[in-house]
Amino acid sequence: MNLCVTIKGVSFLLQTGMGVLGNTVVLLAYTHIVCTGSKLLPVDMILCHLAFTNLLLLLTRCVPPSMTVFGLKALLNDPGCKVVIYAYRIGRALSVCITCMLSVFQAVTITPTGPYLSRLKPSLPSLVIPTFAGLWLFNMAICIAAPLFSMAPRNDTVPAFTLNLGFCHVDFRDNLSYVINGVAVSGRDFAFVALMVGSSCYILLLLHRHSHQMKGIHRSQGGGAETRAAKTVLTLVVLYVVFFGIDNVIWIYMLTVAKVSPVVADMRVFFSSCYASLSPYFIISSNKKVKAKIVCTAEHEQPSADTQDSNDK
């Protein structure tokens, strides 16, 4: 195994391990909150769902390449490739859609109530689940082409217009199918990112106005819960847009060549998965509910460990 292959495998393993751990902690924290009888706010429900989709993305996109790099050949057959690629495409699509949903819901939440929002704001909690369902159905339909073109590698040769993922090939067979698929996926992503950026700019404007209105008043107390939530949303949006930009620069390049280098494909996989790996740690550090549950669990476990040590002595 040469150095480049080793670096690739270790990078995917570290990214996967860090992302799976962070998203699992977020999911367990919210599960504990629900089990103790507390009600989740719309933003908390969206963050919980975001952690789930990020976990789906990491397990289907980073684990198989890592196993392939370290010598596990013929990992998936044709049906296995179709399921994994389809699940990854849906997870990736939902990641951008739910981050956009988070930004839009937060913008509506902190907007001063007016004649148009007086009816919408109280109904926000009841709109979360239907919006999730709509996004799942929409992206399942958009991504339906992925399993049609996915297959297990046949040999060491990679045909033109084929994405070589190592563990699977996505063979579009001709340039037209290749470009149509790329345009459809990129068009959806850019539409949701544009909406995400627009709502985030509106949140920034509202926070700027609020800071001027409250200048010098209770400065030491900091912002309220809605302001903290808005700042968390803005951080996640900026993080997503940065990695989305890198991902799509590489994707546009891939659309312009008939045969994509495996190194380029690996770079795109790595950068497109960075958001899923890093976002849970921003949620943990900025969300008081999640942080409190983690601290509470750690403090609960510490006395048990101390008692066990005393008994052993």
What is the compact description of this entry?
With about 325 residues, this protein is an all-alpha fold. It has 10 helices and 3 strands; from the N terminus they run H-H-H-H-H-H-E-E-E-H-H-H-H. Strand 2 and strand 3 form a beta hairpin.
Structure write-up:
The protein has a single domain, classed as Rhodopsin 7-helix transmembrane proteins (Rhopdopsin 7-helix transmembrane proteins, Up-down Bundle), CATH 1.20.1070. Helices cover 76% and strands 3% of the residues. It has 10 helices and 3 strands. It has helices spanning 3-35, 42-61, 63-69, 78-110, 124-142, 145-149, 175-213, 225-255, 262-286, 288-312, and strands at residues 150-151, 162-164, 169-171. The protein has a 3-stranded antiparallel β-sheet with strand order 1-3-2. Helix 1 runs antiparallel to helix 2. The longest helix has 39 residues, at 175-213. The relative contact order is 0.13. InterPro entries: GPCR_Rhodpsn_7TM (IPR017452), Vmron_rcpt_1 (IPR004072). Belongs to the G-protein coupled receptor 1 family. This is Vomeronasal type-1 receptor. Keywords: Cell membrane, G-protein coupled receptor, Membrane, Pheromone response, Receptor, Transducer, Transmembrane, Transmembrane helix.
